[in-house]
Amino acid sequence: MSLLLDHPLLWSAFILLADVSLWHLLPQPLRIARAALRLTLFIAYGSLLINSGISPLLAPAWGDDSVMQLGATALAILWWLYAARVMTVLIGLALMRRVGQSGRLLQDVFGALIFLACAVAAAGYVLELPVKGLLATSGAMAIIVGLALQSTLSDVFSGIVLNATRPYQVDDWVTLDGVEGKVVDVDWRATHLQTSAGATAVVPNSVAAKAKIVNLSRPSHMHGVSISIQVPKHVRPRRVLDALQRALQGSDSLLLTPAPKAVLKESGESMAEYVASGFIADLSRKGEVRNQLFDLAHRHLEAAGIIRQSEGNSAPTSRARALLDEVKVFRSLSDAERDRLAESMIAEQYVAGQVVLDVNEVADSLFVIGTGVVSAAVMDGEQRVEAGRMGPTEIMGEQSVLGDTPSEASFTALTSSIIYRIDKATARACLEQCKQVNRAFNKLQAVRQENSHAVLLARPVQTRKAGFLSWLQRRV
Protein backbone atom coordinates (compact mmCIF):
# COMPACT_ATOMS: atom_id res chain seq x y z
CA MET A 1 0.00 0.00 0.00
CA SER A 2 2.83 2.38 0.86
CA LEU A 3 4.35 1.69 -2.54
CA LEU A 4 1.06 2.64 -4.23
CA LEU A 5 0.65 5.82 -2.18
CA ASP A 6 4.27 6.94 -2.69
CA HIS A 7 3.99 6.75 -6.49
CA PRO A 8 0.38 7.72 -7.44
CA LEU A 9 1.42 9.11 -10.82
CA LEU A 10 3.14 5.90 -11.86
CA TRP A 11 0.35 3.55 -10.74
CA SER A 12 -2.44 5.71 -12.11
CA ALA A 13 -0.69 5.78 -15.48
CA PHE A 14 -0.38 1.98 -15.27
CA ILE A 15 -4.15 1.64 -14.60
CA LEU A 16 -5.01 3.89 -17.54
CA LEU A 17 -2.65 1.96 -19.82
CA ALA A 18 -4.14 -1.36 -18.67
CA ASP A 19 -7.65 -0.06 -19.32
CA VAL A 20 -6.85 0.96 -22.88
CA SER A 21 -4.96 -2.27 -23.63
CA LEU A 22 -7.56 -4.66 -22.21
CA TRP A 23 -10.40 -2.74 -23.89
CA HIS A 24 -8.84 -3.35 -27.30
CA LEU A 25 -7.75 -6.92 -26.56
CA LEU A 26 -11.17 -8.18 -25.47
CA PRO A 27 -13.43 -9.18 -28.41
CA GLN A 28 -16.14 -6.74 -29.45
CA PRO A 29 -19.07 -9.15 -28.74
CA LEU A 30 -18.07 -9.37 -25.05
CA ARG A 31 -19.68 -6.03 -24.27
CA ILE A 32 -20.71 -6.88 -20.69
CA ALA A 33 -17.23 -8.18 -19.79
CA ARG A 34 -15.57 -5.10 -21.29
CA ALA A 35 -17.91 -2.73 -19.43
CA ALA A 36 -17.41 -4.60 -16.13
CA LEU A 37 -13.62 -4.49 -16.52
CA ARG A 38 -13.63 -0.77 -17.28
CA LEU A 39 -15.86 -0.06 -14.27
CA THR A 40 -13.55 -2.10 -12.01
CA LEU A 41 -10.43 -0.27 -13.20
CA PHE A 42 -12.20 3.08 -12.77
CA ILE A 43 -13.05 2.24 -9.16
CA ALA A 44 -9.42 1.21 -8.58
CA TYR A 45 -8.24 4.46 -10.16
CA GLY A 46 -10.53 6.56 -7.98
CA SER A 47 -9.51 4.68 -4.82
CA LEU A 48 -5.83 5.26 -5.63
CA LEU A 49 -6.37 8.99 -6.03
CA ILE A 50 -8.35 9.38 -2.81
CA ASN A 51 -5.87 7.34 -0.75
CA SER A 52 -3.06 9.47 -2.21
CA GLY A 53 -4.74 12.67 -1.02
CA ILE A 54 -6.02 13.75 -4.42
CA SER A 55 -9.72 14.64 -4.63
CA PRO A 56 -11.52 15.31 -7.95
CA LEU A 57 -13.84 17.72 -6.08
CA LEU A 58 -11.03 19.93 -4.78
CA ALA A 59 -8.10 21.77 -6.30
CA PRO A 60 -4.77 19.97 -5.51
CA ALA A 61 -2.78 21.55 -2.67
CA TRP A 62 0.85 20.68 -3.41
CA GLY A 63 2.24 24.21 -3.43
CA ASP A 64 5.73 23.22 -2.30
CA ASP A 65 6.09 20.62 -5.05
CA SER A 66 5.30 21.93 -8.52
CA VAL A 67 5.72 18.52 -10.14
CA MET A 68 3.20 16.88 -7.79
CA GLN A 69 0.89 19.87 -8.17
CA LEU A 70 0.88 19.53 -11.93
CA GLY A 71 0.58 15.73 -11.77
CA ALA A 72 -2.26 15.80 -9.23
CA THR A 73 -4.14 18.34 -11.34
CA ALA A 74 -3.76 16.15 -14.42
CA LEU A 75 -4.89 13.05 -12.51
CA ALA A 76 -7.98 14.81 -11.18
CA ILE A 77 -8.95 16.04 -14.65
CA LEU A 78 -8.37 12.56 -16.05
CA TRP A 79 -10.69 11.18 -13.35
CA TRP A 80 -13.54 13.29 -14.69
CA LEU A 81 -12.83 12.26 -18.27
CA TYR A 82 -12.48 8.64 -17.16
CA ALA A 83 -15.85 8.90 -15.38
CA ALA A 84 -17.45 10.33 -18.53
CA ARG A 85 -16.09 7.45 -20.58
CA VAL A 86 -17.33 4.81 -18.12
CA MET A 87 -20.80 6.38 -17.99
CA THR A 88 -20.90 6.48 -21.79
CA VAL A 89 -20.02 2.78 -22.01
CA LEU A 90 -22.68 1.80 -19.45
CA ILE A 91 -25.36 3.89 -21.18
CA GLY A 92 -24.37 2.46 -24.54
CA LEU A 93 -24.63 -1.07 -23.14
CA ALA A 94 -28.12 -0.35 -21.79
CA LEU A 95 -29.25 1.20 -25.09
CA MET A 96 -27.78 -1.68 -27.10
CA ARG A 97 -29.72 -4.23 -25.08
CA ARG A 98 -32.93 -2.23 -25.40
CA VAL A 99 -32.97 -0.90 -28.96
CA GLY A 100 -30.12 -2.78 -30.68
CA GLN A 101 -27.74 -1.25 -33.21
CA SER A 102 -30.11 1.66 -33.91
CA GLY A 103 -29.23 3.07 -30.45
CA ARG A 104 -25.73 4.07 -31.59
CA LEU A 105 -26.80 7.63 -32.43
CA LEU A 106 -28.44 8.08 -29.03
CA GLN A 107 -25.29 6.74 -27.40
CA ASP A 108 -23.19 9.33 -29.25
CA VAL A 109 -25.53 12.16 -28.22
CA PHE A 110 -25.60 11.12 -24.56
CA GLY A 111 -21.83 10.64 -24.65
CA ALA A 112 -21.27 14.15 -25.98
CA LEU A 113 -23.50 15.65 -23.27
CA ILE A 114 -21.78 13.63 -20.53
CA PHE A 115 -18.29 14.62 -21.69
CA LEU A 116 -19.38 18.26 -21.85
CA ALA A 117 -20.78 18.13 -18.32
CA CYS A 118 -17.65 16.41 -16.95
CA ALA A 119 -15.39 18.91 -18.69
CA VAL A 120 -17.29 21.80 -17.08
CA ALA A 121 -17.14 20.03 -13.69
CA ALA A 122 -13.38 19.50 -14.02
CA ALA A 123 -12.92 23.17 -14.87
CA GLY A 124 -14.99 24.25 -11.85
CA TYR A 125 -13.76 21.78 -9.21
CA VAL A 126 -10.15 21.07 -10.20
CA LEU A 127 -9.06 24.23 -11.98
CA GLU A 128 -11.38 26.55 -9.98
CA LEU A 129 -12.34 28.50 -13.07
CA PRO A 130 -15.36 30.86 -13.05
CA VAL A 131 -17.82 28.33 -14.46
CA LYS A 132 -20.80 30.70 -14.41
CA GLY A 133 -19.06 33.16 -16.71
CA LEU A 134 -17.84 30.32 -18.86
CA LEU A 135 -21.37 28.93 -19.15
CA ALA A 136 -22.77 32.35 -20.03
CA THR A 137 -20.11 32.85 -22.70
CA SER A 138 -20.58 29.33 -24.04
CA GLY A 139 -24.35 29.88 -24.11
CA ALA A 140 -23.96 32.94 -26.30
CA MET A 141 -21.54 31.06 -28.53
CA ALA A 142 -23.95 28.14 -28.69
CA ILE A 143 -26.70 30.43 -29.98
CA ILE A 144 -24.41 31.82 -32.68
CA VAL A 145 -23.17 28.37 -33.71
CA GLY A 146 -26.74 27.00 -33.60
CA LEU A 147 -27.97 29.66 -36.03
CA ALA A 148 -25.04 28.95 -38.34
CA LEU A 149 -25.60 25.19 -38.22
CA GLN A 150 -29.40 25.21 -38.17
CA SER A 151 -29.83 22.63 -40.94
CA THR A 152 -27.18 20.33 -39.48
CA LEU A 153 -28.74 20.50 -36.00
CA SER A 154 -32.12 19.76 -37.58
CA ASP A 155 -30.62 16.56 -39.01
CA VAL A 156 -29.12 15.65 -35.62
CA PHE A 157 -32.34 16.09 -33.64
CA SER A 158 -34.35 14.39 -36.39
CA GLY A 159 -31.94 11.47 -36.11
CA ILE A 160 -32.58 11.33 -32.35
CA VAL A 161 -36.34 11.25 -32.98
CA LEU A 162 -35.95 8.51 -35.59
CA ASN A 163 -33.86 6.42 -33.21
CA ALA A 164 -36.34 6.93 -30.38
CA THR A 165 -39.49 6.14 -32.38
CA ARG A 166 -37.73 3.47 -34.53
CA PRO A 167 -39.86 3.52 -37.70
CA TYR A 168 -36.98 1.57 -39.24
CA GLN A 169 -33.65 0.11 -38.19
CA VAL A 170 -30.48 -1.26 -39.73
CA ASP A 171 -31.08 -4.07 -42.29
CA ASP A 172 -34.73 -3.02 -42.91
CA TRP A 173 -35.93 -2.46 -46.49
CA VAL A 174 -37.67 0.92 -46.60
CA THR A 175 -38.86 3.62 -48.97
CA LEU A 176 -37.69 7.10 -47.91
CA ASP A 177 -38.46 10.21 -49.92
CA GLY A 178 -39.22 8.04 -52.96
CA VAL A 179 -35.97 6.02 -52.62
CA GLU A 180 -36.23 2.29 -51.90
CA GLY A 181 -33.31 0.44 -50.35
CA LYS A 182 -31.82 -1.40 -47.39
CA VAL A 183 -30.86 0.64 -44.32
CA VAL A 184 -27.12 0.19 -43.76
CA ASP A 185 -26.45 3.02 -41.28
CA VAL A 186 -28.12 5.87 -39.39
CA ASP A 187 -25.58 8.48 -38.29
CA TRP A 188 -25.71 12.05 -36.98
CA ARG A 189 -26.69 13.61 -40.27
CA ALA A 190 -28.36 11.10 -42.56
CA THR A 191 -29.76 7.65 -43.20
CA HIS A 192 -27.73 5.56 -45.65
CA LEU A 193 -29.63 3.22 -47.99
CA GLN A 194 -28.27 0.55 -50.32
CA THR A 195 -30.55 0.38 -53.34
CA SER A 196 -31.34 -2.73 -55.37
CA ALA A 197 -29.01 -1.38 -58.07
CA GLY A 198 -26.08 -1.52 -55.63
CA ALA A 199 -25.82 2.26 -55.23
CA THR A 200 -25.80 4.15 -51.91
CA ALA A 201 -28.48 6.76 -51.28
CA VAL A 202 -27.99 9.29 -48.47
CA VAL A 203 -31.24 10.76 -47.12
CA PRO A 204 -30.87 13.60 -44.56
CA ASN A 205 -32.53 12.77 -41.24
CA SER A 206 -34.62 15.94 -41.37
CA VAL A 207 -36.03 14.84 -44.73
CA ALA A 208 -36.60 11.27 -43.51
CA ALA A 209 -38.44 12.50 -40.39
CA LYS A 210 -40.90 14.49 -42.53
CA ALA A 211 -41.22 12.04 -45.43
CA LYS A 212 -43.69 9.21 -45.81
CA ILE A 213 -41.88 6.09 -44.63
CA VAL A 214 -42.82 2.67 -45.99
CA ASN A 215 -41.08 -0.14 -44.11
CA LEU A 216 -41.13 -3.22 -46.34
CA SER A 217 -39.59 -5.42 -43.62
CA ARG A 218 -42.48 -5.10 -41.15
CA PRO A 219 -44.20 -7.27 -40.28
CA SER A 220 -41.23 -9.58 -40.63
CA HIS A 221 -43.24 -12.68 -41.64
CA MET A 222 -45.51 -11.17 -44.31
CA HIS A 223 -44.53 -9.11 -47.35
CA GLY A 224 -46.72 -8.09 -50.24
CA VAL A 225 -45.92 -8.94 -53.85
CA SER A 226 -47.98 -7.98 -56.89
CA ILE A 227 -47.86 -7.90 -60.67
CA SER A 228 -49.74 -5.79 -63.20
CA ILE A 229 -51.09 -7.27 -66.44
CA GLN A 230 -52.67 -5.42 -69.36
CA VAL A 231 -55.29 -7.23 -71.42
CA PRO A 232 -57.40 -5.99 -74.37
CA LYS A 233 -60.51 -4.26 -73.10
CA HIS A 234 -62.94 -6.36 -75.14
CA VAL A 235 -62.07 -9.53 -73.15
CA ARG A 236 -64.65 -10.28 -70.49
CA PRO A 237 -63.19 -9.42 -67.06
CA ARG A 238 -64.48 -12.64 -65.48
CA ARG A 239 -62.35 -14.74 -67.83
CA VAL A 240 -59.24 -12.72 -67.03
CA LEU A 241 -59.84 -12.78 -63.27
CA ASP A 242 -60.40 -16.56 -63.30
CA ALA A 243 -57.16 -17.10 -65.23
CA LEU A 244 -55.19 -14.82 -62.89
CA GLN A 245 -56.70 -16.53 -59.84
CA ARG A 246 -55.50 -19.87 -61.19
CA ALA A 247 -52.07 -18.34 -61.70
CA LEU A 248 -52.00 -17.26 -58.05
CA GLN A 249 -53.06 -20.73 -56.96
CA GLY A 250 -50.30 -22.19 -59.08
CA SER A 251 -47.62 -20.55 -56.91
CA ASP A 252 -46.78 -22.45 -53.72
CA SER A 253 -44.64 -19.50 -52.53
CA LEU A 254 -47.65 -17.34 -51.63
CA LEU A 255 -49.15 -17.44 -48.15
CA LEU A 256 -52.66 -18.82 -47.83
CA THR A 257 -53.62 -16.09 -45.33
CA PRO A 258 -54.27 -13.35 -46.38
CA ALA A 259 -55.55 -15.03 -49.52
CA PRO A 260 -54.08 -13.98 -52.88
CA LYS A 261 -56.46 -12.01 -55.08
CA ALA A 262 -56.80 -10.58 -58.57
CA VAL A 263 -58.65 -7.31 -59.25
CA LEU A 264 -59.43 -5.08 -62.21
CA LYS A 265 -57.53 -1.89 -61.48
CA GLU A 266 -58.34 0.32 -64.45
CA SER A 267 -60.03 0.14 -67.83
CA GLY A 268 -58.72 2.42 -70.57
CA GLU A 269 -59.73 3.04 -74.14
CA SER A 270 -58.16 -0.11 -75.56
CA MET A 271 -56.52 -1.97 -72.66
CA ALA A 272 -57.64 -2.97 -69.17
CA GLU A 273 -55.13 -3.26 -66.32
CA TYR A 274 -55.40 -6.14 -63.83
CA VAL A 275 -53.40 -6.57 -60.62
CA ALA A 276 -52.67 -9.98 -59.06
CA SER A 277 -51.27 -9.78 -55.52
CA GLY A 278 -50.41 -11.98 -52.56
CA PHE A 279 -48.04 -12.24 -49.62
CA ILE A 280 -44.76 -14.09 -49.07
CA ALA A 281 -42.86 -14.92 -45.89
CA ASP A 282 -39.33 -14.10 -47.12
CA LEU A 283 -38.68 -10.61 -48.46
CA SER A 284 -35.49 -11.73 -50.24
CA ARG A 285 -37.62 -13.90 -52.60
CA LYS A 286 -39.80 -11.02 -53.78
CA GLY A 287 -38.14 -10.70 -57.19
CA GLU A 288 -38.13 -14.45 -57.74
CA VAL A 289 -41.83 -14.78 -56.86
CA ARG A 290 -42.79 -11.83 -59.10
CA ASN A 291 -41.03 -13.46 -62.04
CA GLN A 292 -42.82 -16.72 -61.29
CA LEU A 293 -46.20 -14.95 -61.14
CA PHE A 294 -45.60 -13.23 -64.48
CA ASP A 295 -44.78 -16.59 -66.08
CA LEU A 296 -47.81 -18.28 -64.51
CA ALA A 297 -50.10 -15.43 -65.54
CA HIS A 298 -48.89 -15.62 -69.14
CA ARG A 299 -49.39 -19.39 -69.25
CA HIS A 300 -52.87 -19.33 -67.76
CA LEU A 301 -53.99 -16.37 -69.88
CA GLU A 302 -52.75 -18.18 -72.97
CA ALA A 303 -54.45 -21.41 -71.84
CA ALA A 304 -57.73 -19.50 -71.47
CA GLY A 305 -57.40 -18.14 -75.02
CA ILE A 306 -57.08 -14.54 -73.80
CA ILE A 307 -53.63 -14.00 -75.30
CA ARG A 308 -51.94 -15.85 -78.15
CA GLN A 309 -48.34 -16.99 -78.43
CA SER A 310 -47.94 -15.82 -82.02
CA GLU A 311 -50.02 -12.82 -83.01
CA GLY A 312 -48.79 -12.94 -86.61
CA ASN A 313 -49.84 -16.54 -87.22
CA SER A 314 -53.13 -16.38 -89.11
CA ALA A 315 -53.42 -20.14 -89.65
CA PRO A 316 -56.06 -21.61 -87.34
CA THR A 317 -54.64 -24.16 -84.87
CA SER A 318 -56.30 -26.31 -82.25
CA ARG A 319 -55.66 -25.83 -78.56
CA ALA A 320 -53.83 -29.16 -78.42
CA ARG A 321 -51.52 -28.11 -81.27
CA ALA A 322 -50.82 -24.72 -79.71
CA LEU A 323 -50.14 -26.44 -76.38
CA LEU A 324 -47.44 -28.68 -77.88
CA ASP A 325 -45.50 -25.59 -79.04
CA GLU A 326 -44.97 -24.67 -75.38
CA VAL A 327 -44.22 -28.12 -73.91
CA LYS A 328 -40.45 -28.15 -73.35
CA VAL A 329 -39.86 -31.86 -73.92
CA PHE A 330 -41.46 -31.68 -77.38
CA ARG A 331 -39.64 -28.58 -78.66
CA SER A 332 -37.21 -30.65 -80.72
CA LEU A 333 -40.08 -32.12 -82.80
CA SER A 334 -40.82 -30.75 -86.24
CA ASP A 335 -44.12 -29.02 -87.05
CA ALA A 336 -45.36 -32.09 -88.91
CA GLU A 337 -44.52 -34.36 -85.97
CA ARG A 338 -46.35 -32.02 -83.60
CA ASP A 339 -49.37 -31.99 -85.92
CA ARG A 340 -49.57 -35.78 -85.86
CA LEU A 341 -49.10 -35.89 -82.08
CA ALA A 342 -51.80 -33.24 -81.54
CA GLU A 343 -54.31 -35.35 -83.48
CA SER A 344 -53.92 -38.17 -80.93
CA MET A 345 -54.44 -35.94 -77.86
CA ILE A 346 -57.73 -36.38 -76.00
CA ALA A 347 -58.97 -33.64 -73.66
CA GLU A 348 -60.54 -34.56 -70.30
CA GLN A 349 -62.18 -32.30 -67.72
CA TYR A 350 -61.17 -32.59 -64.04
CA VAL A 351 -62.89 -30.87 -61.15
CA ALA A 352 -61.10 -29.40 -58.12
CA GLY A 353 -59.96 -32.13 -55.76
CA GLN A 354 -60.06 -34.92 -58.33
CA VAL A 355 -56.98 -37.17 -58.50
CA VAL A 356 -55.39 -37.20 -61.94
CA LEU A 357 -52.63 -39.73 -61.21
CA ASP A 358 -52.22 -41.43 -57.84
CA VAL A 359 -49.02 -42.59 -56.16
CA ASN A 360 -47.83 -46.10 -57.16
CA GLU A 361 -50.19 -46.04 -60.14
CA VAL A 362 -48.86 -47.07 -63.54
CA ALA A 363 -50.35 -44.58 -65.98
CA ASP A 364 -51.61 -45.74 -69.36
CA SER A 365 -51.12 -42.27 -70.88
CA LEU A 366 -48.94 -39.21 -70.83
CA PHE A 367 -50.78 -36.21 -69.33
CA VAL A 368 -50.37 -32.64 -70.58
CA ILE A 369 -52.02 -29.85 -68.57
CA GLY A 370 -54.07 -27.59 -70.80
CA THR A 371 -55.70 -25.34 -68.19
CA GLY A 372 -55.88 -25.25 -64.39
CA VAL A 373 -53.54 -25.99 -61.49
CA VAL A 374 -52.39 -29.46 -60.38
CA SER A 375 -50.72 -30.20 -57.04
CA ALA A 376 -47.92 -32.78 -56.90
CA ALA A 377 -47.44 -34.53 -53.54
CA VAL A 378 -44.90 -37.16 -52.42
CA MET A 379 -45.27 -39.68 -49.61
CA ASP A 380 -43.54 -39.17 -46.27
CA GLY A 381 -44.49 -42.27 -44.37
CA GLU A 382 -48.25 -42.24 -44.26
CA GLN A 383 -48.54 -38.51 -44.95
CA ARG A 384 -48.52 -36.66 -48.25
CA VAL A 385 -46.26 -33.62 -48.57
CA GLU A 386 -46.80 -31.15 -51.40
CA ALA A 387 -43.68 -30.99 -53.56
CA GLY A 388 -44.92 -28.33 -55.98
CA ARG A 389 -47.69 -27.07 -58.22
CA MET A 390 -48.02 -27.44 -61.96
CA GLY A 391 -49.80 -25.41 -64.61
CA PRO A 392 -50.42 -25.33 -68.36
CA THR A 393 -47.78 -26.92 -70.66
CA GLU A 394 -46.42 -29.22 -67.92
CA ILE A 395 -46.62 -33.01 -68.20
CA MET A 396 -47.24 -35.97 -65.85
CA GLY A 397 -46.77 -39.73 -66.15
CA GLU A 398 -43.33 -39.70 -67.80
CA GLN A 399 -42.17 -42.55 -65.54
CA SER A 400 -44.77 -44.89 -67.00
CA VAL A 401 -43.82 -43.94 -70.55
CA LEU A 402 -40.12 -44.54 -69.97
CA GLY A 403 -40.39 -47.93 -68.30
CA ASP A 404 -43.80 -48.80 -66.91
CA THR A 405 -42.59 -47.50 -63.53
CA PRO A 406 -45.30 -46.57 -60.99
CA SER A 407 -45.65 -42.92 -60.16
CA GLU A 408 -43.69 -41.72 -57.11
CA ALA A 409 -46.08 -38.82 -56.59
CA SER A 410 -49.79 -38.16 -56.62
CA PHE A 411 -51.24 -35.43 -58.83
CA THR A 412 -54.49 -33.74 -57.78
CA ALA A 413 -56.36 -30.94 -59.54
CA LEU A 414 -56.53 -27.85 -57.31
CA THR A 415 -58.87 -26.07 -59.73
CA SER A 416 -61.11 -27.18 -62.53
CA SER A 417 -58.68 -28.29 -65.21
CA ILE A 418 -58.51 -29.55 -68.77
CA ILE A 419 -55.83 -32.20 -69.17
CA TYR A 420 -54.89 -33.84 -72.47
CA ARG A 421 -54.02 -37.51 -72.67
CA ILE A 422 -51.48 -38.96 -75.10
CA ASP A 423 -51.61 -42.73 -75.45
CA LYS A 424 -48.54 -44.48 -74.00
CA ALA A 425 -47.81 -46.28 -77.28
CA THR A 426 -47.93 -43.00 -79.22
CA ALA A 427 -45.65 -41.29 -76.69
CA ARG A 428 -43.15 -44.18 -76.81
CA ALA A 429 -43.11 -44.08 -80.60
CA CYS A 430 -42.25 -40.40 -80.36
CA LEU A 431 -39.37 -41.21 -78.00
CA GLU A 432 -38.01 -43.83 -80.36
CA GLN A 433 -38.13 -41.51 -83.36
CA CYS A 434 -36.46 -38.56 -81.65
CA LYS A 435 -33.49 -39.11 -79.34
CA GLN A 436 -33.62 -35.50 -78.12
CA VAL A 437 -37.15 -36.03 -76.81
CA ASN A 438 -35.96 -39.22 -75.07
CA ARG A 439 -33.13 -37.33 -73.38
CA ALA A 440 -35.54 -34.58 -72.34
CA PHE A 441 -37.86 -37.14 -70.73
CA ASN A 442 -35.02 -38.78 -68.79
CA LYS A 443 -33.71 -35.42 -67.63
CA LEU A 444 -37.18 -34.37 -66.50
CA GLN A 445 -37.59 -37.60 -64.53
CA ALA A 446 -34.19 -37.14 -62.81
CA VAL A 447 -34.94 -33.53 -61.87
CA ARG A 448 -38.33 -34.42 -60.40
CA GLN A 449 -36.89 -37.28 -58.35
CA GLU A 450 -34.18 -34.96 -57.01
CA ASN A 451 -36.75 -32.29 -56.12
CA SER A 452 -38.98 -34.77 -54.31
CA HIS A 453 -36.07 -36.04 -52.25
CA ALA A 454 -35.05 -32.44 -51.44
CA VAL A 455 -38.59 -31.68 -50.25
CA LEU A 456 -38.53 -34.64 -47.84
CA LEU A 457 -35.07 -33.73 -46.53
CA ALA A 458 -36.01 -30.08 -46.01
CA ARG A 459 -39.23 -30.93 -44.20
CA PRO A 460 -38.87 -30.15 -40.46
CA VAL A 461 -39.32 -33.03 -38.05
CA GLN A 462 -42.58 -32.72 -36.16
CA THR A 463 -42.20 -33.02 -32.40
CA ARG A 464 -45.10 -34.20 -30.34
CA LYS A 465 -46.13 -31.84 -27.59
CA ALA A 466 -45.81 -33.22 -24.11
CA GLY A 467 -48.90 -32.77 -21.97
CA PHE A 468 -51.53 -34.51 -19.91
CA LEU A 469 -53.43 -35.79 -22.96
CA SER A 470 -50.25 -37.20 -24.50
CA TRP A 471 -49.37 -38.89 -21.21
CA LEU A 472 -52.89 -40.31 -20.94
CA GLN A 473 -52.76 -41.65 -24.52
CA ARG A 474 -49.49 -43.46 -23.81
CA ARG A 475 -50.99 -45.07 -20.70
CA VAL A 476 -54.21 -46.28 -22.35
Walk across the major sheet and give the strand order: 4-3-2-1-5
Question: Quick one: overall form?
Answer: elongated
Largest sheet: 5 strands, antiparallel
Q: What separation lies between the terminal Cα atoms? A: 75 Å
Summarize the amount of helix as a percent range.
Answer: 40-55%
The structural domain count equals 4
Count of discrete alpha- or pi-helical segments spanning 4 or more residues: 16
| Weakly predicted, low-confidence segments | 460-476
Q: What does the average pLDDT come to?
A: 82
Oligomer: single chain
Based on secondary structure, the structural category is: alpha+beta
Number of strands: 16
**Beta fraction:** 15-25%
Q: Radius of gyration, Cα only, in angstroms?
A: 37 Å
Task: Describe this protein's structure.
With 476 residues, the protein is an alpha+beta fold. It folds into four domains: 2-148, no CATH class; 167-215, SH3 type barrels (Roll); 223-303, 2-Layer Sandwich (Alpha-Beta Plaits); 322-458, Jelly Rolls. Helix content is 49%, strand content 20%. It has 16 helices and 16 strands. Strand 3 (190-194) and strand 4 form a beta hairpin. The chain is elongated. Mean pLDDT is 82; it is low at 460-476.
